[in-house]
Amino acid sequence: DQQVKQNSPSLSVQEGRISILNCDYTNSMFDYFLWYKKYPAEGPTFLISISSIKDKNEDGRFTVFLNKSAKHLSLHIVPSQPGDSAVYFCAASVGAGNMLTFGGGTRLMVKP
Amino acid sequence: DAGVIQSPRHEVTEMGQEVTLRCKPISGHNSLFWYRQTMMRGLELLIYFNNNVPIDDSGMPEDRFSAKMPNASFSTLKIQPSEPRDSAVYFCASTDGSREAQHFGDGTRLSIL
Lengths: 112, 113
Prior knowledge:
By secondary structure, chain A is mainly beta.
């Protein structure tokens, strides 16, 4: 049973536009959520996180939104750049620093 | 500052052979995690250690898999005997246990023929 799901395996956007990646979870115990970015032949790289006590966290072009009642989070990238093309993983844990449960990933392609 | 270091980067071996994957966490980090990535199951946790002690190994697929952390700067994941279905990318990650996110190594791509 997948506790963290990313229902869109891929997403294509034009450079300069907004990219929105979505993630749903089922475990109500999750209280810490992260987004990782992964390039081929490299390990996942941490992008941004959010605690369940917040509903929004922003870092430069990246913003994560959390809707606890819907058990849904999203990552917004504005403006999108070709270098953002990668696979994005959503992850969740019970407590920060603990084991992560990952979604299946969404491949983002940003076209010049 | 060096990140998480994994070796080897690639391993190709025949089924039945013993395989040992190695990981050096970031200095000062006290939690270490082993993950496996496959097309079918995505990224899944195998085992994690806190202060060199295994905390949760419920993700270890079978007795053929074992992991050790003899000291704070080194961990191994061993598969004996290896099978073709063990072919995957194995990642190691570490964290200092605070709110800091886990840092991942670049993985070991394992192919069992």
